[in-house]
Amino acid sequence: MPNNKKVIWSLLIFGCICCLSFPAAAKEYLFTPINNACQVIDCETNKVIKSIPYNDYIVASQASKDGKRLYLNAWHSIYVIDTAKMELVDTYKFSTELSKVVVIGFDVSEDGEKLFLSCAITKKKQNIPKLEVLAPQLVVFDMKQKQIAKSYEIPHGVMGVITLRNDPNVLILGGLDLFKFNLSDGKYEKIKGLLNPEQGEEVKNSLIVWSNRAPGDHGIFSQPYYTATRMGHFLVDRNTGTLTDLHAKDIWMEYSNIVSPDKKYIFGVMDELVKVDAQTGETVKSVKTKKGTSYGLALSGDGKKIYVGPSGADMSVYNTETLELITVIPLEGDGIEAHMITL
Question: Looking at residue 56, which CATH number applies to its domain?
Answer without folding.
Answer: 2.130.10.10
